[in-house]
Amino acid sequence: MRKALFLVLAAFLVVATATPPAGAAPARSEAGLRAYFVITAPNQTGKVTGAITQNGGTVYATYDAIGVIVAHSTATDFADQLRGVEGVQKAGATRTSDLPAAVANPAVPPAVPETPTAQPESDRADMTQIGADRAWAKNPGSKTVTVGVLDTGVDDQHPDLKANFDAAKSASCAYGKLDTRPGAWRPVGEHGTHVAGTIAGAKNGIGMVGVAPGVKVSSIRVAEAGSQLFFPENTVCAFMFAADKGVSVTNNSYYVDPWLFNCPNDKDQDAILEAVRRSVAYSDSKGVVNVAAAGNEDYDLANKTVDESSPDDSTATVRPVTNDCIGLPHELPNVVMVAAVDPRSAKSPFSNFGEGKISLAAPGQDVYSTIPGGGYKILEGTSMASPHVAGVAALLRSVDPKLNPSQVRARLAQQANDLACPPAASGECSGSAGNNSYFGEGLVDAAEAVGAASAQPQGAITVTQPSEQLGVGGIPAVPLLLKGTGGTGDISYSAAGLPPGLSIDAERGWITGVLTPGAGRYKVTVTARDGEAKTARTSFFWDVWSF
Fold first, then answer.
1. Among candidates 490, 495, 485, which has minimal Cα distance to 532?
2. pTM attached to this predicted model
3. Annotated catalytic sites, by residue?
4. Cα dihedral 409/414/416/419 (nearest 10)
């Protein structure tokens, strides 16, 4: 998710600035002009438009199918007045800052100059980690499947994206109104192009390959130029457009600004919650599978207490929050929420978590992908994890186009590879190996999605269970062999919690070394992993004495 990602990688970010189209008169901002949601019953928005005008507002955009109006007004009591109008169910401000001047005449971002590259495709650990490299040989995805990237825009001329770009299902939703002018979808930052490459970077011999190099990718730009914020009205527009244009999967590597969590006891945030919830539910009803990043605050989403970063469009304040407050869109029903893991499939230190919150995990560190202008870059964040899952969802839809969103979500869960809570989680991680607060159902599996890896029952790979071990500090430990059996291909080994001085041979499973002086009791967990990323774990204690 981009906010914390920018904090970590700010030195690397490159922002493309938008310029006004030829002949466009520069717009001036109107002091105090704010955006509001006015919410009615579905298909009933026409009954309240007169009241909007009478109370000092104008209608900027209407989404009648879900009963949502985006209105503008300089009247400070606009929302309060509209809440008393018959037929209005909720009303509230969508941001805490004035609208920018560009809202009156949005510019089309300029085309990004491309620098050709002869850099060959390279092996990438994240793709091997989820079995995407094996999936490509079986089924790289179908051109009938389009993944919509709801983000900062996508460089549609990038050599690794151009052949797979779907302009017909691309647009800008900046400021909350649909803009289908050619190029309106172009990037105002590099984030969206990086996400797009992870999903559908072409297998063309250069640069990199995405999870599903055979599918199409579209750009539905949500972020506004300059601030690069993803305001609620923009998000509603994007989900509605994706649904109405027949997008198969959306990727959402952001949270809806300006609130990290939206609380229903606040009337403005309650209107935001309702509007975004309706747009996501509408897209789901139209067959769209929505995938979203869990966030980069290392926050327990199941035990909310405080928000220190909101609102992010004006002056943030520290405020108490409860579990009734939720992040959007990732905490909404039927959204696949994705946590991040490192190349060893351990929880990324920044990744949000929470019992009953996380759906799946995917690689979110050292992710190499496309950036505007024909380049490539390594980034990290749950923003980078989410598109891996969106790509696998696209593969599932390529294999069986008749799958509805619920069935796609079920298959993603069923095919995921279990990741157990680590021994050192100190109670922060709860649940079973099959479903827990760190990893949800486990690591997403691209190979199994296309039938390149056969489904394996629990226990298809096993590892020996050692007895309790005993050693003396300052002398070599008695070598211990952990042996994995079953599974497919070569088996590798890793260990957590070893006494200081010991290590495990990743290829053979031998634990050896000289124990560091000092007494202690250590819980050791050994993981055996086969060639299809199926795992088995065993835990035991190692006592160290010192004389």
1. 490
2. 0.82
3. 151, 191, 383
4. 120
